[in-house]
Specification:
It is built from twelve helices and 36 strands. The protein is of the alpha+beta class. The radius of gyration is 32 Å and the shape is elongated.
Length: 703
């Protein structure tokens, strides 16, 4: 049964609605310089009597589709051309057109045989035959042959065409040379299909993940698409967004997200916040955001005008603290050519004002297209795709690092087999840096493009020669011992992931609460987030090298605080922190984990002021509350000194409250030395926990 599509020209506006068409349509048309509508001579088929009428009808029908030059029309034309090919496989023009159709399919490897045969039968079958033959060889990793045919095509051109095509041909020859080098030194990775829970016999693409890769959203073109419509451009169902969650090592069957995220039109994923609560969506050439509130997604809202423009915006990625958004735009002002990567910055964690978009510069952006920007949760590692730099063909995936001086490092190609001679785009990496996700066409696929997980193994152990001489019993000559160096690991990720659940201490029910992260050295709010109001879950990323205050607030509870002082050299760590919030009832005790003193003294450090002010706010909120401030030490040192020090520190905290207007009768203080430990004094971690200041609710008559 032949697939029937609507025979009409597809306007650019329709192509812009579909993310992969909008991004890759230029790549497809670049496969051909002209892709001539070469006529197939009727007289050549008269020599084959049997089935002639059927064959020629198929050619006539196919030519109509071929002339439309859309993905769907090429695929439909191919079905008809293959019917004709059964009756005459020795026609140069027919072989040329079959090769051209395969070049626009996921079976590009089949194009080579037909172009080679067309060229053998008639060397001048079409003006671009050598170019298309080179292109098909290029896509099939036959780089040396491809470069030779690119050069032959270039030399066959007249002076005017030579000038028009020289830059493109020379770039493709350079891509072939890059490919030879990269394939010779493949990266040590595993590429695994994510299986039937994620993939189907339809196309899946553009995966996005939260920081710990416990949830994945992606785009698919399945028959249960919202609205059930088929796109006339390629005869596939409209794009919809799907979601799957991971339980242990197993991914649950993906589900269509439904309304309001999905509409009757094309809807595609382009980005996701680290928490997984903010989904970035591509619709009709612009970017939108939907937020997860409890278990319901909000209506997608357009990005601010500094991002969305009259041009096409096709990719966006938020920084770990949501203070920056990296995005891709085809805008022509302040551009190096094609699509570039830009950045906009929010003025503060509490503000919704975004700066004018800034081009990331020509270290990253080239005069070719860039796409698929993804900023890692560490806040400094950017992954993106580019047709420039040292690509081996089409879009290749690159990585660059933000330096301390504010500049970006020279982009590094992720190499083969992550990158291929075709387009490789929309690559995301989980927080640990060990696993990446992207879509690709491979032999173990379920349909068209499938979603794959990449496992990075690091460099192979190099062989070195030992300097020690060893004597073999029967040989009186020294030999060099071959040993293996330690494995060179994958890039060190300096990042801490904190995740868990916030709940009521008594009822254990989930609590939606605000989470504030403060840089204590700068006394600056880094970012604010919220736990899910239905599940109480939260997830956030803390790059190494800062002393963070972590506070949780809900108007019905006392605040909770934690401290994360993460050294610059600290590697990747995941920490689960389950938080139980206490009501402001008598007997409730809160450890003030972000109050710091000078060593063996009662002088309060400046980093303590945000925590002290939070306690002050509690006392203002509950004017009938009376509290005890208590100081505690570990068991090391002189007991009498520790008792005196603990009381002096508690007194300093009480005096801070009184100095800000809280009546002295509402704030009492006491020192307990090492008498009330909350952890083991035999470990450094335990001793650190025991050195603390607490406040306890004595009474609260206004509760």
């Amino acid at each position: 049964m032949l697939k029937i599509v609507i025979k009409k020209r597809i306007p650019t506006l329709i192509m812009k609605k579909y993310l992969f068409i909008a991004i890759l349509v230029i790549s497809v048309t670049q496969y051909s310089v002209a892709q001539q509508n070469i006529a197939i001579s009727k007289k050549e088929f008269k020599t084959v009597n049997e089935g002639f009428a059927k064959a020629y009808r198929a050619i006539t029908e196919a030519d109509d589709y071929f002339a439309d030059k859309t993905k769907g029309s090429y695929l439909t034309a191919l079905e008809y051309y293959l019917i004709a090919n059964k009756y005459n496989a020795e026609n140069a023009e027919l072989n040329y057109k079959i090769g051209a159709c395969y070049l626009h399919s996921i079976s590009k490897e089949k194009a080579v045989l037909f172009f080679e045969k067309a060229y053998t039968l008639k060397k001048n079958v079409a003006p671009d035959i050598l170019y298309l033959l080179a292109r098909s060889l290029h896509l099939n990793y036959k780089f040396t042959e491809a470069a030779t045919n690119y050069e032959k095509h270039l030399q066959s051109l007249d002076p005017m065409e030579y000038k028009l095509q020289q830059k493109d041909i020379e770039k493709k020859i350079a891509e072939c040379n890059n490919g030879i080098k990269m394939v010779a030194k493949p990266k040590r990775i595993f590429i695994d299909n994510m299986g039937p829970s994620i993939n189907s016999n339809y196309a899946e693409h553009t995966p996005v993940i939260n920081a710990d890769a416990s949830v994945i959203y992606f785009t698919s073109r399945r028959e249960n698409t919202t609205g059930g419509m088929i796109d006339p451009y390629d005869s596939d169902f409209y794009e919809d967004i799907y979601v799957s969650t991971r339980e242990g090592k197993k991914w649950m069957p993906a589900k269509n997200m439904g309304k309001p995220v999905n509409t009757k039109d094309h809807d595609a994923t382009v980005g996701l916040s680290n928490s997984g609560n903010n989904l970035f969506i591509y619709q009709n050439g612009d970017l939108f955001e939907s937020a997860l509130i409890g278990n319901v997604w909000s209506d997608p809202a357009p990005f601010p005008k500094v991002i969305n423009s009259s041009y096409m915006e096709s990719s966006a990625s938020p920084s770990y603290n949501f203070r920056e958004i990296y995005f891709v735009s085809s805008r022509t002002d302040n551009s190096y050519g094609g699509k570039d990567i830009f950045k906009t910055t929010r003025s503060s964690a509490e503000s919704n004002r975004w700066s004018d978009a800034i081009n990331l510069g020509n270290t990253i952006n080239t005069n070719y297209d860039e796409e698929g920007a993804f900023i890692h949760p560490d806040g400094k590692t950017l992954y993106f795709s580019s047709k420039g730099h040292n690509s081996m063909g089409g879009y290749d995936i690159f990585t660059t690092t933000l330096q301390q001086n504010g500049t970006w490092s020279t982009p590094e190609n992720l190499g083969y087999p992550v990158n291929t001679p075709d387009d490789d785009v929309f690559f995301v990496v989980e927080a640990s840096g060990k696993y990446g996700f992207y879509s690709s066409v491979r032999s173990d696929g379920y349909g068209e493009t499938d979603i794959y997980r990449i496992t990075f193994l690091g460099e192979e152990k190099p062989v070195v020669l030992s300097t020690e001489d060893n004597l073999i019993a029967s040989i009186a000559q020294p030999v060099k011992e071959i040993v293996l160096e330690e494995q060179i690991g994958i890039k060190t990720i300096r990042l801490t992931i904190v995740k868990g659940k916030i709940s009521d201490y008594i009822t254990k029910k989930a609590v939606g609460a605000k989470i504030r992260i403060t840089d204590l050295e700068k006394n600056e709010v880094v970012f604010e987030s919220e736990s899910n109001s239905e599940t109480g879950t939260y997830l956030l990323a803390l790059p190494s090298g800062k002393n963070y205050s972590f506070t949780v607030t809900n108007e019905n509870y006392l605040f909770f605080s934690e401290n994360f002082n993460i050294p610059p050299a600290a590697g990747y760590l995941e920490r689960e922190l389950q938080i139980s919030l206490l009501s402001a009832t008598p007997g409730a005790v809160i450890v003030l984990k972000n109050i710091f003193f000078e060593v063996a003294k009662d002088a309060i450090n400046e980093e303590s002021y945000p925590e002290l002010d939070r306690l002050h706010d509690i006392l203002l909120k509950y004017p009938g509350m009376k509290i005890e401030i208590s100081g505690h030490t570990d068991k090391t040192g002189d007991a009498a000194f520790n008792l005196q020090l603990s009381e002096a520190r508690a007194k300093k905290v009480a005096e801070y409250m009184i100095g800000k207007g809280i009546p002295a009768a509402r704030v009492i203080f006491a020192g307990y030395g090492s008498g009330k430990p909350i952890a083991d004094n035999n470990t450094e971690t335990g001793r650190q926990a025991n050195r603390r200041v607490e406040f306890k609710v004595i009474e609260n008559i206004n509760r």
